[in-house]
Amino acid sequence: MTHGVAPQRVALHTRLKPGKEAEYESVHAVIPPDLDEALRGAGVRSWRIWRDGLDLFHVVEVDDYAKMRAVLRDHPANIPWQARMSELLDVEDDYSGGDSGLGLVWELP
User: Fewest beta carbons within 10 Å, which of 21, 42, 100, 103?
Assistant: First the structure.
């Protein structure tokens, strides 16, 4: 990790399947230790999620977002987590493509 360099800040939007709100929050109440270790090992410094109805808004601070996704794609701790998330999310993340998050429109400097 390169903690001397400012991290990338990536915003994401996902959407829950109707009726999965409480289950999603319950599952996120405790992140499995091996997943926590995998995320941190992949350069994640922080990951925050807000919910508005079915819409989820994430802000990830990470050393290198593309590298993080490459590391986590086939990580043994992430595979079962993503399978669980696919039960709750309207569109699952299959880690294909070049996801780069939401484009920044404006920021108060």
Answer: 103
